[in-house]
Design brief:
twelve-stranded mixed sheet, four-stranded antiparallel sheet, 3 helices, about 5% helix
Length: about 325
């Protein structure tokens, strides 16, 4: 499976987005993706861990806030200091104006860049097998289902779909019916697909870094809103709180974590802005949280344990030791 395809199914604080017109999709997965860098030799791997309170939703709609509480837990047998940063990845479908672009094919496709267009469940909308309407059908390929509904006297609506692993996918066709023979003829049958668009990635710790005034939004898409706890400051250095360094792309905790202690929360939620349009259907968004830890000593901080740490933040952390 190529990298594009991988991006269409997962996330770590991971959220991907869907609009309400295409059925229910879940594009959230929860994995622990932690980078621990230890600059002193005395901290074993696993001394700090990302902890979260996150429940994967069945479908995430514009305007819906999803609880995602994230903190750092110390498993060390000595006090530590920590910093945290984000990596983002975004995969959207090709768009045509304010909607996703659809491609039609004569047969099913195996190209991993193509995603079949989901179908609604027509049976829940009063559609049924044409035979129950007294109609005979010609021209429907094997593995394809046709359903129909009488909407007026001598007037019917028809739809096609195919099913894969219990999921329904939309199809297109031309329908002609002869009332004298009660026969429906189906022609020009097409399988419909969306196509993966350009993917993008952002490591907050690599320049250019997000501005302090911009951290409440994804660095890749301003419709994805990041909700922080009251213990996060955009630029003010305050004891026992997180502060964001816009010159390095890291959040620093201004204090120490004792053995077994959990830090104040940094994230509390992620929201898809209510103004997100149809181009956000089937979007896949990943937000990986990574942490670095040091022994809580002045020597570790002054010795370059956190490369690029601003002097004022370093001094504030040392004052808390």
């Amino acid at each position: 499976m190529n990298s594009k395809k991988k991006k269409a199914v997962g996330l770590s604080l991971i959220m991907v987005v869907v609009l309400i017109l295409i059925g229910t999709f879940a594009w959230f997965t929860s994995t622990d993706n932690v980078t621990n860098k230890f600059k002193t030799g005395s901290l074993p791997d696993g001394s700090v861990k990302i902890v979260e309170d996150f429940e994967e939703p069945d479908g995430w709609e514009p305007g819906q806030e999803v609880k995602k509480e994230v903190g750092v837990l110390s498993n060390s047998d000595t006090d530590v200091v920590v910093r945290l940063s984000f990596k983002e990845a975004l995969q959207k479908m090709e768009a045509d104006g304010n909607s996703l672009k659809q491609y039609a094919f004569d047969s099913e496709q195996t190209d991993e860049d193509l995603i079949p267009v989901p179908s609604i469940d027509f049976s829940s909308n009063g559609y049924s097998d044409p035979a129950t309407l007294g109609l005979t059908v010609n021209g429907v390929p094997s593995g394809v289902t046709i359903v129909g509904k009488q909407v007026f006297t001598n007037k019917y609506e028809f739809a096609l779909y195919h099913e894969v692993s219990g999921k329904l996918y939309k199809m297109d066709a031309d329908f002609a019916y002869d009332l004298s023979t009660q026969t429906v003829t189906v022609t020009n049958v097409k399988y419909l697909y969306y196509k993966l668009g350009t993917s993008s990635n952002k490591d907050w710790a690599v320049a250019p870094h997000p501005l302090a005034t911009a951290i409440t939004k994804s660095a890749l898409d301003d419709k994805i809103l990041l909700g922080y706890s009251s213990d996060v400051e955009q630029s003010t250095v305050t004891a026992n709180k997180w502060v964001y360094d816009a010159d390095g792309g890291w959040f620093y905790y201004i204090g120490t974590l004792s053995p077994g202690e959990r830090s104040p929360l940094i994230l509390t939620s992620v929201t898809l802005d209510g103004s997100a349009n149809n181009t956000y259907q089937l979007m896949d968004y990943e937000l990986d949280v990574r942490i670095e830890a040091l022994q809580a000593t002045e020597e570790a901080i002054d010795g370059g344990g956190f490369p690029g740490i601003p002097t004022n933040i370093a001094n504030a952390i040392k004052a808390a030791l």
